[in-house]
């Protein structure tokens, strides 16, 4: 307003007025962006780099941190528990992600065609996603108990099958927990898949049917390829979820977190225990760096594999 | 305008505070949140302030899970507590972190501490200094369900007194369905609950062993006595089948539901078990071995003086610590929290010893040991894994014990090599 038109020399102009509209826009944009940037730098990036530094120290909260080089990493790679936990983390990922995606796609694919009580059924699938993980884990924990209180074992006993140890077994505990994690995330994945299915233009299907393609061919040639962006999103999202699994495991095994004998312990739970029950912050930071690297590599790998060609 | 008012307001506030501190000294007391403990401490503070009008005590509480992080953060910020409560097992960490200071022997004479308190107070001593004093202590005892005892034809007023009798009672009370599944256990067990203490300080000593070397730096339970104790305990579920690890998720749940004839637990469980209405229960001392030898595990939270307290605050903190470690305070604590007095004179009164519930716990204190943990959670995990290898993987108790000893020694070595 003050010195607008550019007609005649204007003597007294502030620094601000010398900028062009375009420059002002950029300044404003950065002024607003500064808030989240400062937030992320202060709350996310700075602690991340701090964690890298801590992983080279023996900080235990109480005594001052001392630089110990790669000792934490040496200890970690020589620790059989770490490798067991590493393996568990990838079991959650490698079994959990494909199974949950296939199941949710199949449900979404058929649910999409159901008209009868469609909304109600969809709500039923979505309900577990809204429930607190801790509450759900406790309910499942009691389901898995031996008789007289475990529902599943009660059912097995009634039909004359031997009772199963579930959470008190080296082989069954991890799958038993994974089932609940898959079930909990199913609703969300179904909704996303259905949105993806709805976004595919009906005309493609009509054309295919006119050309005489069967259902299987339509699924392979039209539905799946066009659903790729949705699938990429869900693969990345669910992989990160399984790599970071914690609530279900911790709440279903609170008496012996990650047990029995570390057979269900994921990396995040190991980090939590190292940091907040053993107060070995340096060692916990080293484990965090490993988790960070895994998450980064897995995400980049998936984006590369599922990229647009 | 507004600024000037703010400054004026602040100045007034500051001068009021200065005025206040000239008359009275304020000290801070820190403990974790647990309803009955907070109530008891509020009562003690009220009594103390009435007797010492020139001292005010600010009661600060925080969730148990934040304990060490909170205390450490406060120390880094230079705002530590004047008197703080800590678990005896954390003492080494608190001393190393310079969070607390040694007690002045002129105010708290060693002879008095050693003659008055139960011997387990020695766990608060490092070198020549005591670092804290407990108000109350906890021990273990055997809870038993009188209804189940009667139904099994056992005398509910005559609970098992020896390990053999315990096994016999468990065998008489365990119940199974047609498929062989246990529907009610003879004794509810699990290292995840209190059994790791029973194993470490009770059974191992009763079988003639010793869990750790006298200086606490070496694991010494991997010997014949240790193997015998571990095998005896494991045989309860391994061969006798009188219990099942993980039955009803945890022992106290099984006992509360009336599906366990016996359970070993601590004084802190009294609150929960007092709410049981469907059956009557009793408490007895932990069973003796064949020679009549008993051993128990005791633990406690002690109160210590923060490292930042000095001058008149230190004086006030010492007065306060002396009061909350007095027999009067212990009586109030027993009343409100249900934890046993830490002074023998206050604990071992005729009335307390004859008490049907407190009595067995108090008798247990006389022969109780405290484990000096360096990493409580990790050492408990060692016991859990010991049990899991036997109960789930079917490993031989002796082999499992050897693995446990190696794992726990590694934890001790890591701590002492720092």
Main structural class of chain B = alpha/beta
CATH architecture of the largest domain in chain A: Orthogonal Bundle
C-alpha termini separation of chain A = 51 Å
Evaluate the radius of gyration of chain B. 24 Å
Could you say what the CATH architecture of the largest domain in chain B is? 3-Layer(aba) Sandwich
Q: Give the tally of structural domains of chain B.
A: 2
Q: Please tell me what the overall shape of chain B is.
A: globular
Largest sheet of chain B at a glance? Answer: 12 strands, mixed
Largest interface: A-B, 31 and 37 residues
Count of helical stretches of chain B = 18
Report the CATH superfamily of the largest domain in chain A. MetI-like
Give the N-to-C terminal Cα separation of chain B. 58 Å
CATH class wording of the largest domain in chain B: Alpha Beta
The structural class of chain A is mainly alpha
**Low-confidence region ranges of chain A:** 1-6
Signal peptide (chain B): 1-24
Keywords (chain B): Periplasm, Signal, Transport
Pfam family, one (chain B): SBP_bac_8
GO molecular function (chain B): maltose binding
Description:
The complex is a heterodimer of chains A (309) and B (418). Chain A is mainly α and 309 residues long. Chain A has 2 domains: 20-54, no CATH class; 80-305, MetI-like fold (Orthogonal Bundle). Chain A contains 13 helices and no strands. Chain B has 418 residues and is of the alpha/beta class. Chain B has 2 domains: 24-138 and 299-369, D-Maltodextrin-Binding Protein, domain 2; 139-298 and 372-416, Periplasmic binding protein-like II (D-Maltodextrin-Binding Protein, domain 2), CATH 3.40.190.10. In chain B, helix 2 (35-51) links the parallel strand 1 and strand 2. The A-B interface holds A 58, 60-63, 141-142, 145-149, 153, 157, 162-163, 165, 167-170, 255-256, 259-261, 273, 276-279 and B 65, 68-69, 72, 93-94, 96-97, 99, 177, 179, 181-183, 190, 192-193, 244-250, 259, 375, 377-378, 381, 384-385, 388-389, 391-393, 418.
């Amino acid at each position: 307003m003050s010195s607008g038109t550019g007609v005649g020399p204007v003597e007294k102009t502030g620094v601000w007025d010398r900028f062009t509209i375009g420059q002002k826009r950029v300044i404003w944009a950065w002024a607003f962006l500064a808030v989240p940037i400062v937030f992320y730098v202060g709350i996310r990036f700075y602690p991340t780099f701090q964690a890298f530094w801590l992983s080279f120290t023996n900080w235990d909260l109480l005594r001052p941190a001392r630089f110990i080089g790669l000792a934490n990493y040496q200890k970690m790679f020589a620790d059989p528990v770490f490798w067991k936990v590493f393996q568990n983390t990838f079991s959650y990922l490698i079994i959990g992600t494909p199974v949950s995606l296939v199941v949710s796609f199949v449900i979404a694919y058929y649910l999409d065609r159901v008209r009868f009580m469609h909304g109600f059924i969809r709500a039923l699938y979505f309900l577990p996603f809204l429930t607190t993980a801790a509450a759900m884990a406790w309910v499942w924990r009691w389901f898995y108990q031996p008789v007289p209180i475990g529902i599943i074992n009660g059912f097995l006993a009634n039909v004359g099958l031997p009772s199963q140890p579930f959470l008190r077994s080296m082989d069954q505990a991890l799958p038993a927990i994974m089932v609940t994690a898959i079930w909990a995330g199913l609703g969300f994945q179904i909704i996303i898949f259905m949105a993806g299915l709805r976004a595919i233009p009906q005309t493609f299907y009509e054309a295919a049917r006119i050309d005489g393609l069967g259902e299987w061919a339509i699924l392979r040639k039209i539905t799946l390829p066009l659903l790729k962006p949705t699938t990429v999103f869900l693969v990345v999202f669910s992989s990160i979820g399984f790599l970071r699994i914690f609530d279900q495991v911790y709440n279903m095994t609170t008496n012996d977190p990650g047990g029995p004998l570390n057979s269900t312990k994921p990396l995040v739970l190991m980090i939590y225990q190292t940091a907040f029950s053993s107060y070995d912050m340096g060692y916990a930071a080293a484990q965090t760096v490993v988790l960070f690297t895994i998450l980064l590599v897995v995400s980049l790998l998936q984006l590369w594999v599922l990229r647009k060609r | 305008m507004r600024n000037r008012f703010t400054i004026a307001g602040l100045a007034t506030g500051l001068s009021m505070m200065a005025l206040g501190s000239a008359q009275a000294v304020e000290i801070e007391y820190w403990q974790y949140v647990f309803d009955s403990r907070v109530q008891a401490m509020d009562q003690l503070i009220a009594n103390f302030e009435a007797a010492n009008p020139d001292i005010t005590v600010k009661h600060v509480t925080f969730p148990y899970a934040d304990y060490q992080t909170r205390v450490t953060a406060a120390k880094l910020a230079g705002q530590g507590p004047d008197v703080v409560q800590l678990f005896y097992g954390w003492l080494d960490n608190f001393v190393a972190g310079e969070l607390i200071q040694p007690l002045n022997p002129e105010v708290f004479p060693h002879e008095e501490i050693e003659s008055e308190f139960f011997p387990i107070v020695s766990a608060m001593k490092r070198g020549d200094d005591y670092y804290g004093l407990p108000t109350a202590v906890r021990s273990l005892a055997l809870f038993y369900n009188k209804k189940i005892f009667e139904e099994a034809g056992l005398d509910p007023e005559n609970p098992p007194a020896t390990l053999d009798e315990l096994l016999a009672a468990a065998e008489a009370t365990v119940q199974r369905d047609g498929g062989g599944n246990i529907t009610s256990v003879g004794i509810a067990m699990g290292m995840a609950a209190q059994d790791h203490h029973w194993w470490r300080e009770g059974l191992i000593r009763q079988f003639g062993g010793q869990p750790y070397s006298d200086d606490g730096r070496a694991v010494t339970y991997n010997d014949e006595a240790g193997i015998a104790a571990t095998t005896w305990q494991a045989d309860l579920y391994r061969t006798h089948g009188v219990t099942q690890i993980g039955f009803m998720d945890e022992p106290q749940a099984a006992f509360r539901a009336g599906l366990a004839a016996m359970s070993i637990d601590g004084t802190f469980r009294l609150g929960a078990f007092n709410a049981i209405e469907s059956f009557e229960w009793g408490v007895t001392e932990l069973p003796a071995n064949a020679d009549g030898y008993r051993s128990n595990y005791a633990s406690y939270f002690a109160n210590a003086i923060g490292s930042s307290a000095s001058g008149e605050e230190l004086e006030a903190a010492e007065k306060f610590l002396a009061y909350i470690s007095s027999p009067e305070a212990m009586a109030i604590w027993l009343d409100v929290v249900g934890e046993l007095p830490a002074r023998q004179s206050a604990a071992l009164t005729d009335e307390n010893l004859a008490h049907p519930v407190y009595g067995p716990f108090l008798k247990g204190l006389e022969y109780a040991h405290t484990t000096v943990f360096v990493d409580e959670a990790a050492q408990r995990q060692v016991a859990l894994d010991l049990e899991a290898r036997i109960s789930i993987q079917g490993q031989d108790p002796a082999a499992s014990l050897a693995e446990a000893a190696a794992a726990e020694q590694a934890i001790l070595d890591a701590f002492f090599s720092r």
